[in-house]
Amino acid sequence: MRYPADLDSSDIAILAVLNTNARISNKDLAEHVGLAPSTCLERVRRLVEAGAIRDFHADIDLAMLGFGLQAMIAVRLQRHSRKVVTSFREYVLGLTEVRTVYHVAGADDFLVHVAVRDADHLRDLAMDAFTTRSEVAHIETRLIFEHVPIRRLPIADGEWE
Q1: String of b and e for 99-129 (b: at least 16 CB within 10 Å)?
Q2: CB atoms within 10 A of CB 71
Q3: Does CATH number 1.10.630.10 belong to domain 4-50?
Q4: SS3 43
Q5: What is the DSSP pairing of strand 98-103 with strand 136-144?
Q6: pLDDT in tens, 12-51
Q7: What angle do CA 147, 150, 153 make, to 5 degrees?
Q8: How far apart are CA 55 and CA 62, in angstroms?
Q9: How far, in Å, CA of 161 to CA of 143, rounded?
Q10: 42-67: per-residue pLDDT in tens?
Q11: What CATH architecture is 62-144?
């Protein structure tokens, strides 16, 4: 089987393990994927350089920091030129409450995942940061009751073997 971007089954195995646990030691990772530690370390370095691994991070419980409410804000723009879309995207990426930005097709142009302290903070963010923008035609806010990230690659078992 041909692997995307010249990845082989060992690369896929490394990515699958790191996607679940980025803090695993190189020794344990190498053992888990059946490689020598030096080979595993070199493959991880190569995967980072190639852009297959974009980042290593910790999953923070935002409620522990006082951000107990999350929401998805759907945004519809007035116009759809590249300049307007890029400008709005850069603007929302700079808002401290923003967790993730999706540029989407359909009735809405963006879905913006935000974390806020409470309902008042959400209202103020929507009113001050979104509706005041001239390029924004409409927003719709949806509360997130639960956010469960899935830590697995979208690959069926055995697909890369």
Answers
A1: bebeeeeeebbbbbbbbbbeeebbeebbeeb
A2: 19
A3: no
A4: helix
A5: unpaired
A6: 999 999 999 999 999 999 999 999 999 999 999 999 998 8
A7: 155
A8: 19
A9: 41
A10: 999 999 998 899 999 888 899 999 99
A11: 2-Layer Sandwich (3.30)
- Inter-CA distances, 107 with 61, 73, 87, 148, Å: 32, 13, 19, 25
Higher confidence at residue 6 or residue 49?
49
- Residue ranges of domains in the chain: 4-50, 62-144
Rounded-to-integer distance, Cα 110 and Cα 103, Å: 5
Six-digit token string for 43: 């493959």
H helical segments located in the chain = 9-20, 26-33, 37-50, 82-93, 119-125
